[in-house]
Specification:
3-stranded mixed beta sheet, two-stranded antiparallel ribbon, globular
Length: 405
């Protein structure tokens, strides 16, 4: 991956361009930049179900590969089925109020909620692949337990917690409601839970670090699909279109990264501070790269998930954000694979790791759209089978590795 650098000292050139009424776009990026012109948000006339992160054709592809014992899907399936999330003896632990403070202090039901949501999704995948009703029934049991009890999320991390759990619940609910013929009597109550407890928080977005708003937007998109709520879907798409360019920098942006609508950021000093003090900008740098790669991975993953759901719903957002996502995956993957970090990137040190987040974006951009992604491919294949981050990412080698559907 070729890396191009921009430094704040380029502001003079940008200022001159502004005076002259010109737009400075590097030649190599000009063609891609045109794909990011905002389009009118439009929810589908008819929603596709199941249609949150995974579709029926994708599930059929996975089921066939697992039944054939093919790599890497069979190993990924075995990994999933050996996890605690596939247990048929799991007892859900719902709470009326889930209280989540900063750095999980306090943690009253936060881990329980996230892991029960991942369990419901895991069991829904197990149901579809095996066609064994006991997995669907267990997923329903967990979803029913929470929809009967939960009323609110509180404390400082409540928006993020609502986004994480709210991203996963609709994935499970979509698969069960639209593929399990045994019936789900309380699916309406579950929908009410999503509408009343999760959607009002996540649809508002966040001016905090970008991964917060992206995860919340992922939840809003998924919930909107399950509820067939076109107004909320359109609002979430508009938030996505404003946030992604403010989360991932590409050279076409000019001397400084873009800012999200209503962020309140103004001027180079404020923007550089928001970007963790980084004043040298390069293709694929994210707003949180210099914070750590773990939070960067959260943001990249949510972007991929939202685009994947939009594609299933017939409103493909990948072309609008493809260059940003490709560059972000490529830059971070390059250093995850051991390349020396230059001194002008986060002081020469990157912390932590991305986590199991590359499969969805890599499959969409490389396999479907034909982008060359050498570094991302190396990392993706090295991480297989990708498991769960125990927050909102789970089993994406199984669901999206080389999946053409």
């Amino acid at each position: 991956m070729r890396t191009r650098f921009r430094v704040w000292t380029a502001a003079a050139a940008a200022g001159l361009a502004a005076v002259l009424g010109l737009t400075l776009i590097p030649q190599a990026s000009a063609a891609k930049a045109t794909t990011e012109a905002p389009a009118v948000a439009a929810a589908p006339a008819a929603f596709t179900h199941p249609g949150v992160l995974v579709s029926r054709p994708q599930l059929d592809f996975v089921r066939g590969k697992v039944q054939a014992g093919a790599a890497p899907w069979k190993a990924a399936y075995d990994q999933m089925m050996a996890s605690k999330y596939a247990s048929l003896t799991r007892t859900a632990a719902p709470r009326a109020t889930v209280e989540c403070g900063s750095y999980s202090n306090p943690n009253y039901g936060c881990t329980d909620e996230r892991e029960d949501a991942i369990a419901a999704y895991t069991l829904s995948l197990a149901w579809y692949i095996t066609q064994d009703a006991k997995y669907a029934k267990k997923a329903i049991e967990i979803m029913d337990a929470w929809s009967a009890v939960i009323k609110a999320h509180t404390n400082s991390n409540a928006p993020l917690q609502t986004g994480w759990a709210g991203s996963v619940w609709p994935r499970a609910a979509e698969i069960v409601k639209y593929t399990y013929t045994g019936g789900w009597a309380n699916s309406g109550r579950f929908g009410t839970m999503l509408r009343d407890v999760y959607l009002p928080t996540v649809i508002k977005g966040s001016n905090s670090n970008g991964n917060w708003e992206l995860s919340m937007t992922e939840a809003a998109i998924g919930i909107s699909v399950f509820l067939e709520d076109r107004t909320s879907y359109d609002k979430a798409v508009a938030t996505f279109r404003g946030r992604v360019p403010a989360y991932i920098y590409i050279s076409a942006d000019g001397a400084l990264p873009k800012v999200a609508p209503n962020s309140g950021l103004s001027g180079s000093a404020a923007i550089i501070k928001y970007w963790q003090g980084q004043s040298v900008f390069m293709d694929g740098l994210t707003q949180e790269t210099c914070r750590d790669l773990t939070h960067t991975g959260y943001g990249i993953s949510a972007i991929s998930h939202i685009a994947e759901t939009s594609r299933i719903q017939g409103q493909d957002l990948y072309p609008e954000i493809a260059e940003r996502l490709r560059q972000a995956l490529g830059l971070q993957s390059k250093y995850m694979m051991g390349a020396a970090v230059p001194s002008n990137l986060c002081g020469g040190t990157l912390k932590d790791s991305l986590g199991p987040i590359a499969e969805v974006g890599f499959n969409a951009l490389h396999n479907r759209l034909g982008y060359a992604m050498t570094n991302t491919q190396a990392l993706t294949e090295q991480q297989r089978p990708a498991g769960s981050n125990n927050l909102f990412v789970a089993w994406e080698t199984l669901t999206h590795a080389n999946n053409p559907a």
